[in-house]
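Hi, here's the filled form for the chain we discussed.

Project: internal
Contact: R.S.
Residues: 380
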Amino acid sequence: MKSALVISKSWLDRDPRVYKQILFLKEAGFRVATAGLGSSGIEESFLSLERDGPRRRNIERLRSAVQLKLRRYEQYYWSEAWRQKALHHFCNDSNHFDLVIANDVPVLPLALAIAECQGAKVYLDAHEYEPLHYDSFLFNFFLRDYWRDICGRYLSKVDHMTTVSQGIANEYSRNFHVPCGVMMNLPFYERIKPVDRRDGRIRMIHHGVAAKRRRMENMIELMGQLDSRFELDLMLVESDANYANRLRKIAGRNHRIRFRPPVSMQDIPLTLNEYDLGIFLLPTNSFNHRMVLPNKLFEYIQGRLALAIWPSQEMVRIVDQYQNGVYSEEFDVRQIARVLNSLTEQDIQRMKRNSHVAAKELNAEQTRKQLLGIVDSLLN
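And the returned structure, exactly as it came back:
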């Protein structure tokens, strides 16, 4: 029986992309071990990558900052105890791995080191373009050159590489001269149909993490410019309680905005099916935001919703291909408000029917075939 190690610095039961890797490998007959923040619940063995003990003290943070500015990048990388623990654990594991899957660049040097011990192939699935992950003073001052160096030294050593969108793949290939494929964030297929409503109401929903850098106030501002047909439900994972409370306070002035508790990953598409429009207004405050092709876009499609987005180029490609949504010409609340206010019930029902067509193509069966094809080419 072939075996694989899947590494991701995430909660594996809540990370749809990584969870599917584990599931599809198991269904293909692999023995699967994982390392992450929390178990997926379906692997044979799991190693926690959570930080042991208290957070770094100020003197340790200062030491890390000095290491980064002196370009002592290897020293900085391996100063994280969780990386050392994982390397020691898997290099001394009596079980052999044929394949190591690294989810994102921060675990790539670790994955390569483990693979060298094990004589395994390495597949990198990059969820972000790491050298431009954020656009902030601290990131640019301390980490941008660090991640460029990591990419420059390690990307060429992987046996196969994919990422989430064509724009990010092009950037990796252009800057680091490596082939990089695209594997979209496609959810499981749902055997449901669009709900055909003719009651004069347009039900919108946004689901996801309540994060400041996503500037979710834009959707609340938008509701003040939409006509009385529109309602908005926000189904948020409130990882930042202060920010979530701020959103509730702002939204409290508009009775057409409601907050509802999040549902499990498996229940998202069925829950979305109650609505008409899935909305995602992501600002262009980083390269990854400009090139985003997120889980929620395809979950909206599986929910058989029409889509409402700003003109992020990767999402626009999907909307143009399937004619299942609308977008503004610019990243502007007033523009998207004008577009939405012009919609008729017939427009929305047509777009929902087009999402029904798209759902049959843009689902995890495509991911399964692509992933297992990559694995087969690496190991056979």
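Let me know if anything looks off before we file it.
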